Amino acid sequence: xxxxxxxxxxxxxxxxxxxxxxxxxxxxxxxxxxxxxxxxxxxxxxxxxxxxxxxxxxxxxxxxxxxxxxxxxxxxxxxxxxxxxxxxxxxxxxxxxxxxxxxxxxxxxxxxxxxxxxxxxxxxxxxxxxxxxxxxxxxxxxxxxxxxxxxxxxxxxxxxxxxxxxxxxxxxxxxxxxxxxxxxxxxxxxxxxxxxxxxxxxxxxxxxxxxxxxxxxxxxxxxxxxxxxxxxxxxxxxxxxxxxxxxxxxxxxxxxxxxxxxxxxxxxxxxxxxxxxxxxxxxxxxxxxxxxxxxxxxxxxxxxxxxxxxxxxxxxxxxxxxxxxxxxxxxxxxxxxxxxxxxxxxxxxxxxxxxxxxxxxxxxxxxxxxxxxxxxxxxxxxxxxxxxxxxxxxxxxxx
Length: 399
Ligand SMILES: Cc1ncc(COP(=O)(O)O)c(C=O)c1O
Fold this sequence. Notes:
- The protein is α/β, with parallel strands linked by helices.
- The chain has two domains: 6-44 and 289-396, Alpha-Beta Complex (Aspartate Aminotransferase, domain 1), CATH 3.90.1150.10; 63-284, 3-Layer(aba) Sandwich (Aspartate Aminotransferase, domain 2), CATH 3.40.640.
- It is globular.
- The model has no long low-confidence stretch (mean pLDDT 96).
- A seven-stranded mixed beta sheet has the order 2-8-7-6-5-3-4, with helices on both faces. It has a three-stranded antiparallel beta sheet with strand order 9-12-11.
- The chain is built from 13 helices and twelve strands.
- Bound molecules: pyridoxal-5'-phosphate.
- Pyridoxal-5'-phosphate binds next to α4.
């Protein structure tokens, strides 16, 4: 038996981080590379939020805090859930972690017994299945429709067994940008009402990034009867351009929240005190930069969707939210790249695209649905335009 734990053999490293690293390496070697792999806004953190962090440092708020969040941040989160989602949570129903990623992981570690199943719709955020595996559970993958990237109530129903512990929802979605309307979500929550042993983990990280007047809703709001078995997860990374600050949070039943704090107390303890004070300002302070940023994101989405749909063999649906598009490259499969390599999979497509044109994107199969690829359009508009021109040229040169 090797030194490294067997559990790790079941887990893959993050494909999105791998692509970002590869693009970085090529750049360092002098190649002209446009990286569209990373899932983070290119905007700077707003000044008022930075100022709150600097004030926290100057005021000596630099010590250990309560494990799962300072009372001021929990109060700001309760107010946010009430104001934006119509959800009533008390502070003992709130947990704060080092990013939404830790919050999701804590929830799985706190609840999964060996063999428990977790239903994950495709295309999924790369970390869900691997987190479930690390926690000792079994991911159960439900395939979405290949053009809407949404699952049907029937498919959800069919995926649930007596071993199902959680269903993970993520709307708007990373990687597809697809978001469920209130009616679509209601049809899914109706299914969950029939299965009282199943809990709902709603990853609302992209809540604020929706376009064309789309109304965001979350399961506990759409179906209040599910409130007692829903964990509503969110964070400041995406809407507030605070990816590096590492603050995520969740609201849910007090017993679950307490169990999650227990996990965190024996692993990392509190998230950065300074980042927590910055998050208080993010949630309580002015929100007007969010619609302004969204205008920019929407313009980029429209540009990218339009340009990709003009590339040979590519078909790109127009997503409701997040800052990703997830086009199909099915029309390029079987063609030959300039290197002589025949494109057999979406992984071949992204590898050849990076080698030939220096555009870094992530293969759809890493998210459980292909042949597709994910583009993050959270990057400068000129770079996006150039990247799409290169993709058009690459596709046009396939034989
Ligand atoms: C769907 C989704 N959930 C959760 C996260 C985690 O975000 P963070 O840990 O920065 O809060 C991300 C980040 O990429 C994401 O895309």
